[in-house]
Design brief:
The complex is a heterodimer. By secondary structure, chain A is mainly α. In chain A, 87% of the residues lie in helices and 0% in strands. Chain A is built from eleven helices and no strands. Chain A is rod-shaped and about 110 Å long. Chain B is α/β, with parallel strands linked by helices. Chain B is built from twelve helices and 16 strands. In chain B, strands 9, 10, 11, 12, 13 and 14 form a six-stranded mixed β-sheet that branches. The chains are: A mainly alpha, B alpha/beta. Chains A and B meet through helix 4, helix 5, helix 6, helix 7 and helix 8 of A and helix 1, strand 3, strand 6, helix 9 and helix 10 of B.
């Protein structure tokens, strides 16, 4: 607010706070009318410009935050994709090991494909995430290279019937499950926090338009009332236009910027949450499938992998249940995974009663079929939700850049109208 | 005045309204597995001085000549096995040369398996080629060897265990052993051409030695730590071969039988040195099945006598390239243990 000096009838130079208000009141009650008119006009015009500038800034802030939400969301989905591909590759490597020498060619080529795609995706995401996550992703890349080497050693030894191959497979699985996957999960958590932080920022940025707009309208109305009272002309047209137009604009802009952030909210709470949960379920499910194979590969020493299967299965089931109960989506996946779990129980029963060969046949047969059914269904669900989240988040902030310009220009126009409106009365004093 | 005094609180209310009810993406889901209460560890009995005084490799003397296959005495353990139609055996499936799966045929084979097949052929009247039809293989791990014998076949256990199992006094308190059928000992596996021929030379070189965790092998090698050996313990001995092949260890110590299996998988290695412990292997049976132990000892005597023992040794330990010849003499049986 401008501190007016000199003209105000004999009072001291006003400072901020109560002395200022007192000076203002005394200036309004005492002093000349043109003086009082200017006292109202200049701060009002400045407030209008501030509304334009700060309102536009607030909308711009919101737009930027929503863009960051979308980026973080896309990165989260991408990192999930990397993790799922890697554990899928692990499951394929373990299953093929179980088959012995004559491995399944399709499984082998899918394994190579998944490792390839995961590696490419790792590099692509590393270029987009902040530096700390980027370095962690580089580490994961190195681990994937180690993992691949160990799997090849396992295969080479398996071909020759050497039991040390199983040890290589175990070591490879440790690299994947104890090092690479936890690193990816840490990155995913950081990205979730980023989504949340940026969404909160987007919410808060909306305050600017209100903080400047409503006071502006009140000030214009008060100024108009003073003019009406002083000059006995009820409506000062420019001020009336400024007030009415300002009100309409404020309501429209507030609701549009509100819609932008609530669209983003809906996208995060809906498809993004669903994509997050399903990706977690898929990663845990592939983990379980790998553990199933390893319980059979490590004959007689499979107990530790049975315990891991239980943990992985519980995580997958919890994620799918959350998706169905919380969001009401993808409920068929719950039954699909239960079907696979029942198949696994069969495999364990056969192995425990000493029928290892039948257990292997069951694992590579019925259990594999049920798992593939779940994996295909969940892949479709993950892709759909991920695409929906991305699209919705991109669309959420669509209108905001244009709105920014509108608010900025509106601020200038309202300032001009205020100057014209008060100027009309001031002219009478020339 | 009204403009200024409502502006502040109004802004605050708006900002708070914006913050409340923020949508947040929840953290990762964690599945919970109900954990069983920890099993109370049963204190295993120890041998007293009198028991320790008796040579652990002493077993029960055979009671007479072997009955003909298919004609076991009624009411005996062998009779029950014959009636059942199959011999249930506890074996390893990843100890190369002793009990490992043949990737081509899918069958478990090795020296230990050969001994079990001889026992089965002595009970059942079948052709040697068809012996698998009267055998039921149960793959068990190191810690299950004794419990599976104590449980008995009716409770998910086995009749007999051949699992590179060392005979010692403490185990005799829980199960019964046959006479010694293989003489093993702790040695060291090193790179061929490394010039190392003993544990002392390893210590002098400050070598990194890998050993299975929680084993008597670990206790034995730790004695050399002061002399310069760097000991790494791994959960499984095959993890040690991985470590050695990946350049993380210079040598492995364990039973020379297991090390021979490693040498067969990796021709760039060799088993060297004198034994620094003796590990006599025995076939394990239930403590109460004394008649079965006498029977198996009689079978082993014939196997030693008519060359089947040497043939198995030749096939598994020499032809595989694991050890150098010649075939040693089979360990002689020692009897004199009192039943009861």
């Amino acid at each position: 607010m401008v501190a007016v000096q000199g003209r105000v009838g004999g009072t001291a130079v006003p400072r901020a706070g109560r002395p200022f208000a007192r000076a203002w009141r005394s200036a309004l009650s005492g002093g000349t009318t043109p003086g009082r008119l200017r006292l109202l006009m200049i701060p009002t015009a400045v407030l209008a410009v501030a509304f334009g500038v700060l309102g536009a800034y607030g909308i711009g802030s919101r737009a930027a935050a929503l863009r960051d939400v979308r980026d973080a969301s896309d990165q989260l989905i991408a990192v999930h994709d990397v993790q799922v591909r890697l554990v899928h590759a692990d499951a394929l490597a373990s299953e093929n090991y179980l088959r012995g020498g004559p491995e399944d060619a399709i499984a082998r080529s899918t394994y190579l494909q998944e490792i390839d795609r995961a590696s490419t995706q790792l590099v692509a995401v590393a270029n987009k995430v902040p530096e700390r996550e980027s370095l962690q992703l580089a580490d994961v890349g190195a681990l994937v290279a180690d993992y691949s080497g160990l799997v090849e050693q396992a295969r080479a030894n398996n071909r020759q019937g050497f039991p040390v191959g199983a040890a290589y497979l175990r070591v490879a699985n440790d690299v994947m499950a104890q090092q690479a996957v936890p690193a990816l999960r840490t990155i995913e958590q950081a990205l979730r926090h980023r989504v949340n932080d940026e969404l909160s920022d987007a919410h808060r940025a909306g305050a600017w338009i209100h903080l400047t707009g409503w006071p502006l309208l009140v000030v214009i109305a008060a100024g108009g009332a003073f003019v009406a009272f002083r000059f006995r002309r009820l409506i000062n047209v420019p001020l009336a236009i400024a007030a009415a137009g300002g009100l309409v604009l404020l309501v429209a802009v507030a609701s549009m910027q509100g819609a932008a952030v609530s669209d983003a909210d809906a996208a995060v709470a809906g498809p993004l949450r669903a994509a997050d949960l399903i990706a977690q379920a898929r990663a845990a499910a592939f983990d379980a499938r790998t553990d199933e194979a390893l319980t059979l590969v490590n004959r007689g020493n499979g107990a530790v992998y049975e315990a891991k299967w239980e943990q992985a299965s519980a995580t997958a089931a919890a994620a799918l249940a959350a998706s169905c109960d919380e969001l009401g989506t993808e409920c068929p996946l719950v039954a699909s995974f239960d079907g696979y779990a029942a198949g696994y129980a069969e495999v364990r029963a056969l192995d425990s009663s000493g029928e290892w060969d039948s257990a292997v046949a069951e694992s590579l047969g019925v259990s594999a079929e049920r798992f593939t059914a779940f994996s295909d269904q969940s892949a479709a669900a993950a892709a759909d939700n991920g695409a929906a989240a991305s699209a919705q988040l991109a669309a959420a902030g669509d209108a905001l850049p244009a709105l920014r310009v509108v608010v900025f220009v509106a601020g200038l126009v309202i300032a001009a109208l205020v100057l014209v409106g008060f100027g009309q009365r001031l002219r009478e004093y020339r | 005045m009204s403009r200024r005094s409502i502006g502040g609180p109004l802004a605050l209310v708006l900002v708070l309204a914006a913050c409340a009810g923020d949508v947040q993406l929840p953290d990762a889901v964690q599945g919970v597995v109900p954990t069983d209460p920890p099993a109370t560890t049963v204190q295993q009995p120890e041998c007293n001085t009198t028991q320790l005084a008796l040579d652990a490799t002493r077993s029960y003397e055979p009671s007479g000549p072997l009955p003909a296959p298919g004609a076991m005495p009624a009411g005996s353990t062998m009779g029950r096995i014959l009636e059942r139609g199959r011999l249930v055996v506890g074996v390893s499936a990843d100890t190369l040369l002793f009990g490992a799966r043949n990737p081509d045929s899918g069958a478990i084979e090795g020296f230990d398996i050969d001994m079990l097949k001889q026992v089965a052929l002595a009970i059942f009247d079948v052709e040697p080629d068809a012996v698998d039809s009267v055998m039921e293989y149960r793959v068990i791990n190191y810690s299950e060897r004794l419990p599976k014998l104590e449980a008995g076949v009716d409770n998910g256990g086995v009749d007999i265990v051949a699992h590179t199992m060392t005979i010692n006094c403490r185990r005799w308190l829980r199960i019964a052993f046959s006479s010694e059928y293989f003489s093993a000992g702790q040695k060291v596996l090193v790179r061929r051409g490394s010039g190392v021929g003993s544990v002392d030379e390893l210590a002098a070189a400050g070598a990194r030695v890998c050993v299975p965790d929680g084993s008597t092998n670990l206790d034995n090698i730790k004695a050399y730590e002061g002399a310069g050996v760097i000991v790494t313990a791994k959960p499984d001995i095959s993890d040690c071969l991985v470590a050695m092949q990946q350049g993380e260890a210079d040598a492995i110590t364990g039973d020379d039988t297991v090390l021979a299996g490693f040498a067969a998988q990796d021709p760039t290695t060799e088993v060297v040195g004198e034994r620094f412990s003796d590990e006599p292997y025995g076939l394990g049976m239930s403590a109460g099945a004394v008649d079965f132990v006498r029977f198996v000892n009689a079978v082993l005597e014939e196997v030693r006598r008519d060359g089947r023992w040497s043939a198995s040794y030749q096939r598994w330990l020499i032809d595989s390239g694991a050890l150098n010849g010649p075939v040693p003499a089979a360990p002689p049986p020692l009897y004199g243990r009192e039943a009861g």
